[in-house]
Structures are given as structure tokens and as C-alpha cells.
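Below is one such protein, fold included:
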Amino acid sequence: MRFLHDTHFQFMKYRKFWITVSTVLNLLAIGLILFGPGFKYGVDFAGGTQVTLKFKSEPDQARVRKALEDLKLGAVNIQRFDEAERHELLVRVQNPGEEGDFSAQMLGALDKEFNPAGGRIRMNLQGMEALRDALVEADPDRRGGTVSERRAHYEPMAQSVLNLRKQSGIFSGPQDLDKATELSATTRSFLSENARFGEFSVLAADSVGPAVGKDLRKKAGLAIVFSILGMLVYIWFRFQLQYGIGAIVALLHDTLITLGVLSLTGREIDIPAIAALLTLVGYSVNDTVVIFDRIRERLKLDRGKSLVAIMDVAINQTLSRTIITGGLTWLVVMALFLFGGDVINTFAFVLVIGLIVGSYSTIYIASPIALAVSNWREKRLQAKRRR
């Protein structure tokens, strides 16, 4: 498939104007990052605790937020997880500036807010060991003997209950225990009468300390820097230094503007956002290499023509490919952005913005910068010859 066949747009004619526009946009991005809202880091980089909850019915997010804000641990972020009908929430609480896992405090506050009092065995919140120990203490099967012997007896039952909870996500009531085949009749009866099931269960819980978050921020920054430097070396060896410089300036341009948009919109920078930035780096370089490869080819075929004319021809010849590839990729990430859910929304948002900026910079940043460096090197070479 090909359209825009045999075009003759003079892209390089307006290079100074577009470089000026890009410079202004980059300065605005720097201003937003340094003097504006700055970056809003997610739990991965700022440190904090994250829990994934499943509710029996549609959760009241306002009640969830209030219960957690009353703990005064830090900023609370709530996102819907998976399809709406699954009633799952991803809850993040930023670190209050000290090391520690605050998931127990968070679950305690939510348990107090949503679940009725009574019944110390919490079927939807406790882990295998806690459930096992509760059964060992109550000993509904009247096993007697030592604690170790009772643990050996009740541990398979507790594990069976936990496996069943993992499969269903949440126990809605005592009737769900009928599917736990390892439970004895007396233990099942005991749990049905003495346990409480509550309104929500915990699917996952993670905690990141402030020191670990700081280290992750540093490593994420290094990952982006080293990926850009790696691209410079690759293009330098494959083409020439001036093309490597042009590609790197374009990558810095794409990354900086995308980070500026993230700062402006107040979106969290987390590991998926960094993954999106690295994806953008690879995509942008791939697009740039295609144009540079065509420039190298035209340099051999069109000897005697100016570099400006050769670049215009090369960009025009790859224009159809750039629009089709970039356009189809952009439609895919736009679909992810609109319908992919909250968890990958920022990842898709970065690519939605980055693909637009990257396609533009391939034409109006990478090639003009390579042209400027080539002209500068040619002038220096001529100056040396005149000496």
C-alpha cells in the first residue's frame, strides 16, 4: 500500500522555522519541569504502598479515599483495575517519608470502614498462616496433641481455602466454602459460624521504601540516557557522526517534550511510563534510520546535487511509509489509551504524544541537524585547505 506517490515537498526550505518552533517547545517543557508542576512520581519512584482490592459490589471510591486519608500517611491514588464489572481497585498511598510497609494499616482502616465488627477470622483478608493458626487455636476437629501436630492437620485445609479464594477473588459468603474439598465438615461448620467474610478481599499488596524509590528513579534515568547514547554509537558507525548527532538531538527533543506534557497534565511517572519512553526512543530511531538510509542511497545516485536537495528527495520517498507506519501505530495506541483501562492509560498516553512528536522530529529535527553539522564540518575542511 502506498499513497503520496512522487511528492516534491521542500521540507528543508522551512527547517529554520520548525527548529525555532521546536526550540520554543523544548524551553517550555524545561520550564514546566523545573519551575512549573514538575514530575509527579508514582509509588514505584516516590515510595509507598500499593494494594489491589476486589469488592463484592460496586465500590464507593469516596469512602475508600476518606478511610485512607484519615491515616495521614500520604497522597492517596485510586484507580479502577480490570473491567468495571469485576469491582477491583488499585489503591496507592505514597510514602510518608519513612521506611515501612503500611499495607496492614491501610487494610485495617478499610476493614473498619467497610466490614461489620465480630468474628476475628477474616476470610477475605487473612493469609494462609493466619488462618491456619486460628484453626490450630480453635481446634474445631478436636485433634488435640501438640501445636505442631495440629498445624500439620489444619495447614492443608487453610491452603485449600486460600487456593479457592485466589480462583474466585473473593468469598461472598459461607456457601463458597463448600468448594474447598480439603475442609472437614466440622471445620467448615466452624468457619461458617465464626468467620466473617466482609465486603472486599486483597488480591495483592506491594511496598516500596523511599530509598528504593530513589534508587529506581536513578536507574530509570540512566536507562534512558544509556539507550540514547547507544543509539548515537549505532548510527555513528552505520552512517556518519553528523547523522548520529541529528538522531540524538531528535531523541532528546521527543523525550523532553513528552516529559513536559507529563508534567503539564500531572500524570504519574512510574515504571510503565519509563517503558513507554524507552519504546518511543526505539520507534523514533527506527523511523530516523529509514530516512538516513535513503539519504545515503541518494548520495551515491545523485552525485553533484546539494545535500539539501538530496534530503528533500529522501524524505519525500519515505513519506508514504512514515505516514502509514506512524498512523497505524498511533491508532493502536490511541485505542489502548481510550479503552485499555487505567492501569496502562499513562503508558498509552506517552506513546500517543510521543509518536506525533517523533514523526515530526524525524523530518524537521534529525535531518536539519545532520545537515547543519555536515555544513559546519565542510566549512572547517575548506578552511583547513585554504591554509
